[in-house]
Design a protein that fits this description.
Largest sheet: none
Shape: elongated
Distance between the termini: 35 Å
Number of helices: 3
Strand content: under 5%
Structural class: mainly alpha
Length: 90
């Protein structure tokens, strides 16, 4: 499960981000990745500690979405400063 989860989340985010090469695509890809991360962590906590999976999923989804989607434009600016203007996301 773990190896599958580590490939499907970033893979789906990359696919959406390259399908829509703009800031909205970056945000949508980040949101999809946040959903996969929240699902993986809530499933793990459900299996290990028998916590309510759906409640934990929504509890984790909000901060993951804020961190990943909210800071994507900031990290895009950092990447542009480090690597120059070769980044093509507008």
């Amino acid at each position: 499960m773990d190896a599958f989860h580590k490939r499907i989340g970033p893979g789906s985010a990359w696919l959406v981000g390259h399908r829509f090469p703009c800031t909205k695509g970056m945000a949508l890809g980040g949101a999809i990745y946040a959903v996969w991360v929240a699902f993986g962590v809530s499933f793990m906590l459900y299996m290990l500690f028998n916590v309510p999976a759906l409640l934990t999923f929504f509890y984790l989804l909000l901060p993951e979405t804020i961190l990943i989607v909210g800071f994507s434009p900031v990290m895009h600016q950092v990447e542009k400063r480090i690597f120059g203007e070769t980044v093509s996301v507008t």
